[in-house]
From TrEMBL:
Residues 68-122 form a coiled coil. Keywords: Coiled coil, Membrane, Transmembrane, Transmembrane helix. This is C-type cytochrome biogenesis protein CcmI. The chain crosses the membrane at residues 6-25.
């Protein structure tokens, strides 16, 4: 009778072990890296909201200063990229080739000036 309990106990333990370990070895669906739909793209409003929540978390001492500054800078860079893409999209519609390059450079300089202002306000 003891052998029956040993066999049943061993089967239960092996079954539990299998269910715990199997997710680590199964190949799940990996989303394609370059395929973003329109709904998956971040908007400026979402980035501003994320920065506001991040500031609230920092003020409530949920995250450290280093993490806060690193994440805030990442969000600012994302916002700058979105602004740059929007500016390029709008200018491409209105400007011919050579003027477009000049306007792109001006937009990039403006974005950098805005980032510098934000960094000075932070410091």
């Amino acid at each position: 009778m003891d052998y029956v309990f040993l066999i049943i106990g061993s089967l239960v333990i092996i079954t539990c072990f299998y269910f715990i370990i199997s997710p680590f070895f199964s190949a799940g669906e990996v989303p394609a890296a370059g395929l973003e739909t329109e709904s998956e793209k971040l908007t400026l409003e979402q980035i501003y909201n994320a920065v506001n929540e991040l500031e609230m978390d920092f003020l409530m001492k949920k995250i450290t200063r280093e993490d806060f500054e690193k994440l805030k800078e990442n969000y600012q860079l994302l916002g700058a990229e979105i602004l740059k893409e929007e500016a390029q999209g709008q200018k491409a519609k209105h400007l011919p080739g050579s003027k477009k390059k000049i306007k792109d450079a001006e937009a990039e300089a403006e974005i950098l000036r805005e980032l510098k202002k934000l960094r000075q306000q932070k410091g």
